[in-house]
From TrEMBL, chain A:
Domain of life: Eukaryota
Protein's name according to its UniProt entry: Small ribosomal subunit protein mS25
Organism the protein comes from: Characodon lateralis
One Pfam short name: L51_S25_CI-B8
Keywords assigned: Mitochondrion, Ribonucleoprotein, Ribosomal protein
SUPFAM superfamilies: Thioredoxin-like
From TrEMBL, chain B:
Keyword vocabulary terms for this entry: Coiled coil, Mitochondrion, Ribonucleoprotein, Ribosomal protein, Transit peptide
One Pfam family in the UniProt entry: MRP-S26
Intracellular or extracellular location(s): Mitochondrion
Protein name in UniProt: Small ribosomal subunit protein mS26
Keyword set includes Manganese: no
Coiled-coil boundaries: 56-173
Taxonomy, superkingdom: Eukaryota
InterPro entries: Ribosomal_mS26
Length: 170, 207
């Protein structure tokens, strides 16, 4: 694979991301330095965790600024204009991600409730338009009678034949 | 021959006659305006399907009742969905939830501020320490330079003394004659012999 740590580009790695922001968070800004011991945690955070965060929150704008301030920090811009500052000087990247998850991430219970609601809303037993249900007709299921538009039904199953048989019997 | 119409023109047309569910209009199919009628259809008179008045009355009754019920059901369901949505957004529970969320958010922001303060304190300490270290380093460097200077001066003094010592034995214009006399009186023999074992013999014959 191309690049260093190409595992960051695999779907499996991205889907393992833990930080899902609350609906209030709109913009995330990371200010860090490319050299220096104190920015090491921030650099690792940007390198490893930002792809996961962006994958899980496609509607949050994430911007990176390099070598603009002497010390690294994160800034979050919320819906109601509030700005949340997180100082990350000298911190470990794992600690940074835990911190962010604690203050602005959706909690486990909220996530589970949402998953439940989604499951309840979409019943796999329903048949209907592809937009709302899995299948439109029983002919799409493997092992069932195929659609008569592709292969004609055997004569005994057609309504025409059955009507003729019923008539001839009476 | 008939075509279903839909779109922006439908809303206006729907106000006119048709009460049916689907709006159809006649459309010229395969033949154009001036084509003659087909031979098999020359004497054809279009006759609408026969209607039994009794059946018509009964059917009209039943259909009106049926449509009424169906329309009522549809509106009921629509209303239920709207009501649910309204409850979701501006119900009593929604307010509770919003308040709780606000409180939690407040608590988390406070915790975050605490963390930031701690980082600030740590940073101040670190900067102070660095400043002190830099100061002590400069002081030490100054002392070092002083030391080196002193050393240099001492070295130079030693050399001067040594030179002074040697100056006593120099040959000058005054004692030139004397020294020549001395040199001629005491011939110095620089020759020496060495054997295979490496022992040096300095007492040799001068020629």
């Amino acid at each position: 694979m191309k690049g260093r740590y190409p595992i960051r580009r695999t779907l499996e790695y991205l889907q393992k991301g833990e930080i899902i922001f609350r609906n209030k968070v709109k913009i995330m800004t990371v200010n860090y330095n490319t050299h220096g011991e104190l920015s090491e945690g921030a650099r690792k955070f940007v390198f490893f965790n930002i792809p996961q965060i962006q994958y899980k929150n496609p509607w949050v704008q994430i911007m990176m600024f390099k070598n603009m301030t002497p010390s690294p920090f994160l800034k979050f811009y919320l819906d109601d204009g509030e700005q949340v500052l997180v100082d990350v000087e000298g911190k470990d990247y794992k600690r940074i991600s835990q911190h962010v998850k604690k203050i602005l991430g959706k909690t486990e219970e909220v996530l589970q409730a949402e998953a439940q609601a989604k499951m309840q809303a979409s019943n796999p037993a329903n048949f209907g338009p592809k937009k709302y249900c899995l299948r439109e007709c029983i002919c799409e299921v493997e092992g069932q009678v195929p659609c008569p538009s592709t292969t004609p039904l055997p004569k005994e199953m057609t309504g025409k034949y059955r009507a003729k048989m019923a008539e001839s019997q009476e | 021959m008939f075509r279903v119409i839909g779109g922006r023109s439908v809303q206006a047309v729907r106000l006119l006659a048709p009460r049916s569910a689907v709006l159809v209009e006649a459309v010229r199919g395969r033949k154009s305006r001036n084509d003659p009628v087909a031979k098999s259809k020359e004497g054809r008179i279009k006759v609408p399907p026969p209607v039994d008045p009794v059946e018509m009355v009964v059917l009209k009754e039943r259909y009106s009742e049926y449509e009424l019920i169906l329309r009522a059901l549809r509106l009921e369901f629509k209303e239920e969905v709207l009501r649910k949505k309204y409850e979701e957004e501006t119900g009593s529970q929604a307010e509770e939830r919003a308040r709780q969320e606000k409180e939690e958010h407040r608590a988390l922001m406070d915790w975050n501020d605490q963390e930031n303060l701690q980082m600030l304190k740590a940073r101040i300490l670190r900067i102070q320490k660095e400043e002190e270290e830099a100061e002590s380093k400069t002081v030490e460097a100054a002392i070092q330079r002083e030391e080196e200077l002193q050393e240099f001066i001492r070295q130079k003094e030693k050399e001067i003394l040594q030179l002074q010592e040697e100056a006593k034995n120099f040959i000058t214009l005054e004692n030139l004659d004397q020294r020549i006399e001395e040199a001629l009186d005491n011939p110095k023999n620089y020759n020496f012999a060495i054997d295979k074992e490496g022992s040096v013999v300095k007492r040799t014959v001068l020629q």
